[in-house]
Amino acid sequence: MAAVATLVRRAKDYVQTKEFREYLTSTHFWGPVANWGLPLAAFKDMRASPEIISGRMTTALIFYSLAFMRFAYRVQPRNLLLMACHGANVVAQSIQGTRCVLYHYGSIRMSTPADPRDLTANSSSQASAAPASRSAK
Known about the structure:
The protein contains seven helices and no strands. It is mostly helical and 137 residues long.
């Protein structure tokens, strides 16, 4: 328990420093905070139908995040918050890309529940079209 108390005290002391206040007002903090919208939106869209996924956009976002992960690591001082954000985005977009490939090119078809009104409309239109084609002969 003493270790936890020491850790909390050290964290409190660090938060009160000028260095931390300057970090909170810099682009090294607010840039990644704004960027977290990309992976959060991708994780949210995992519940949606895969037919809405754009393969080109997903691929572009994967390469974009890979490039900025490298940038976040190479820039001095290193921006690990930005790197974590883009790492999460690479994971999220890779999952979305896999869903897109499986839906469009794989043998797995993810179906949505059919609306009963669509079934009756299709069957009645097919039934009325059949006699018309027979009478035309």
